[in-house]
Design goal:
Blueprint lengths: L19 H11 L3 E3 L6 E3 L1 H20 L3 E2 L5 E3 H4 L3 H7 L4 E6 L2 E9 L4 H11 L8 E10 L13 E11 L2 H22 L4 E5 L11 E8 L5 E11 L1 H6 L2 E3 L5 E3 L1 E8 L1 H10 L16 E5 L8 H12 L5 E3 L7 H10 L4 E5 L1 H6 L1 E6 L5 E5 L3 H26 L1 E3 L3 H10 L3 E6 L3 H11 L2 E4 L18 E6 L3
Parallel strand pairs: 3-7, 15-16, 15-17, 20-21
Antiparallel strand pairs: 1-2, 4-6, 5-6, 7-8, 8-14, 9-10, 10-11, 11-14, 12-13, 17-18, 18-19, 21-23, 22-23
């Protein structure tokens, strides 16, 4: 690693348990994931933050392509006349849409929306491309930015402009579209748990919480340390709503002209916000190894006049690189304790230390970021042990997240207990529910919580909150 001017000592961040919001913001900034941009509500994704996002992107993209999806790109600007074709969709996004009204010095004849999502423009293009049942299914994804004019913002969790992927597919039958929606929901759940070590619940959203214009919305939800839920990915069945609005029709095998069945599904960088909150500690980030830009950092600790340690560290880093993404931090103008603090702040899963005594004894010291445990390992076993520890850390973070979710999930069947549990904001509350939109609004007014996932299991008794019959059990929580 090239020498650079040493920074000042990393200042302490707030204790996570004392102020999760301030802790979160300080970690995002001090781990150099982001910085604030001149425009309110916008952030700059710094190289380290972008590297983490690229890891998440790669995990998702590989799974999309393995299931037959291809990437494309659609314009950022959407004519107002296209956006307004689907009335329910427009109504749902109207407060958040940013508009371009002037180009250069000329007022525009028609306003252009900066995409809050791309159903309108993609639906318009699909109407041109799809003519026959032979053209179906269309399985397209795009990686892009979108803009939603949010009032309250926080890095990754809610910003005016954010990065995401949005998949848009078209199918000949309702059954094929429904299967697509569930397939993508499963992929989201797999990446959340197996890659990001986030314990999630997944299932259907309520009528009030579903995507504007959708017939049904399904989601994955993670539980954060403060007891709030984080919606981490969504998958939507549109039926023929958008194909009717945008004229997406095809000639079927029976030679009848029919409207296609469409879907969309998306994950944004807010899922990275969930990783930061769930796994981080009072020292900073704790990154799951599978998304860590540097899985191992090698830190030589030479004494003055020593000429053996740095070459030994370089050789060790070279041996580690085939089994892990490895960085050698051989900066001469930064102390070892400062380096330890920096890489702990950045959440590097393993730190390998090597000093004169280690060289002489044929050993190294390996420090785990998740537990802060230090192990002395024979030099010859360093690569194999590092690979083993990375697997252990990945599994341990998921196990810890699952334990937290389960310990903070309660099942209730009494109205007063439901209200008290939601007001305490301790986590997920599972209860029999009628699924009536008006009942959910009453629950929200009483507790500031809404349903997160519904239809979890059959419910034999009445609704926990009102006198209506219960349709199913549902998870409730306050949310981000």
């Amino acid at each position: 690693m090239a020498d650079q001017t040493a920074k000042k000592e990393v200042k302490e961040i707030p204790r996570k348990a004392d102020d999760l919001s301030d802790w979160y913001t300080q970690v995002c900034l001090r781990a150099e994931l982001v910085d604030y941009a001149p425009v309110r509500g916008c952030i700059v994704l710094r190289p380290y933050g972008f590297a983490v996002w690229e890891m998440i992107q790669a995990a998702l993209d590989a799974r999309f392509k393995a299931t037959g999806h291809v990437n494309a790109y659609f314009p950022l600007l959407i004519p107002e006349s296209l956006l307004t074709r689907e009335a329910e969709h427009v109504e749902g996004f109207a407060p958040e849409v940013a508009w371009v009204t002037q180009g250069g010095s000329e007022p525009l004849a028609e306003r252009l929306a900066i995409r809050p999502t791309s159903e309108a423009i993609i639906g318009t293009m699909y109407a041109k491309w799809i003519q026959s049942h032979r053209d179906l299914p269309v399985l397209v994804n795009q990686w892009c930015n979108v803009v939603r004019w949010e009032k309250a913002t926080r890095p990754f969790l809610r910003t005016l402009e954010f990065l995401w992927q949005e998949g848009h597919t078209a199918h000949a039958t309702r059954a094929e579209a429904a299967a697509e929606v569930q397939q993508m929901l499963e992929i989201y759940g797999e990446v959340a748990e197996d890659v990001l070590a986030l314990a999630v619940i997944k299932g259907r959203k309520s009528e009030n919480e579903k995507f504007a214009g959708a017939e049904a919305t399904f989601a994955i939800e993670a539980l954060m340390p403060d007891g709030k839920a984080l919606q981490a990915g969504t998958s939507h069945e549109f039926g023929q709503n958008f194909s009717q609005a945008y004229g997406i029709t095809f000639s079927d095998v029976d030679e009848q002209r029919k409207h296609a069945f469409t879907t969309s599904w998306g994950v944004s960088w807010r899922i990275l916000g969930g990783v930061i909150m769930m796994h981080g500690d009072d020292r900073g980030l704790v990154l799951p190894p599978l998304i860590a830009p540097h899985q191992v950092v090698v830190v030589p600790i030479p004494k003055k006049g020593d000429e053996a340690v740095v070459p030994a560290a370089r050789a060790l880093a070279a041996e580690l690189r085939p089994v892990a993404r490895t960085l050698l931090d051989d900066r001469a103008n930064a102390s070892a304790p400062w380096k330890f603090n920096e890489w702990e702040m950045r959440g590097v899963p393993l730190r390998v230390e090597i000093g004169p005594r280690d060289v002489a004894a044929g050993q190294v010291t390996i420090a785990r970021r998740d537990t802060l445990e230090k192990l002395t390992v024979p030099r010859a076993d360093a690569a194999a042990r590092a690979a083993e520890l990375l697997r252990e850390i990945q599994a341990a973070l998921l196990a810890k997240a699952r334990a937290f979710r389960d310990e903070h999930t309660v099942e209730v069947s009494d109205k007063e207990v439901l209200i008290a549990a939601l007001r305490k904001q301790q986590g997920f509350v599972l209860a029999p529910w009628c699924e009536a939109p008006e009942c959910e609004l009453e629950i929200k007014a009483a507790t500031s919580a809404v349903s997160r996932i519904v239809g979890v299991a059959p419910a034999q008794n009445g609704c926990t909150f009102c006198d209506r019959p219960a349709k199913s059990k549902a998870y409730f929580a306050r949310s981000y």
